[in-house]
Amino acid sequence: MNKDTNTKRRKIITVTVIITLILIAVYGLFKVNILKKQIEDEKRITSDMSKKVAEYDELLQIDSLLVKGEYDAAINAYNSRWSDNDIKEASGVQLRIDIAKKLSKLRNGEQLSEVSLMEQDSLDSIQNARLSRIPKEIKQYDSLNFVLEKVKVQLASTKRQLQRKSFGEYITFTNKKGSQFHYVGEVKKNKANGYGIALLNTGSRYEGEWRDNQRHGQGNFYWIDGEHYSGSYLNDQRNGKGTYFWPNGEKYIGQWKDDKRNGVGVFYGKDDEVVTQGVWKDDKLVEEDKK
Fold first, then answer.
1. What is the C-alpha separation between 212 and 173, in angstroms, rounded?
2. Is 253 exposed, middle or buried (0-12, 13-18, 19+ CB in 10 A)?
3. How far from 259 is each of 21, 140, 239, CA to CA, in Å?
4. In the predicted model, what is the mean pLDDT of residues 114-135?
5. What stretches pass through the bilayer (predicted)?
6. How many domains is the chain built from?
């Protein structure tokens, strides 16, 4: 009886060991297949990354043509390398082509007229109010070469920003005032959110913080005629503390609300001397401080 019992136990142990070994083998094969798939996925990701790096290096080489001012050569190189329009849009190449075309027109003297600029870029009441009063010498001061040099700096800055991993998504949108934006930067829910740079259809440019396709936070806005605002934005308008610069060296430092000078502020002349200061309302000095 004991002999039969021992035999049965040995059989049970043997079967148990065999089943365990089979399960271990199956599990091992399963793990091996998973590891193989992971290795293949890693290889594919590495290959894709290598292609992206090579493509980005090629893009930077063509970008260097923009910085050198060889705009037509850059446009031809972009179109030759990226013929698919969808790829151009997704990779930001179309933005570069648009910038190159605009710069080429500027160099050839095809700048937007003052009337066209005022109609399309209604973002700045100060600029619109002053356009008719800008003396000839100031316009000459803000010559085409001056504009081109500023845009070259912009392109170099844009290129540096595009090198950031989290930066570089490209979208276009139109704001409530009808101005079209070509935007490169951080995107969330298909809208400009975070830090980014945008080129308007008028040639103006904004770089700074965004929220839901609106300038919101700290930023810098550059007009094509050389005027420049640096400061706070709220819901796509100048609000809070900010500085407005004119090409002739004049500047205003103070408070803003609804895109206009509102609150305490100081207006400086081109030699950095105080011309006037006090309380402003809707771009007009209503209470002068005669200190």
1. 11
2. middle
3. 77, 27, 7
4. 45
5. 12-30
6. 2
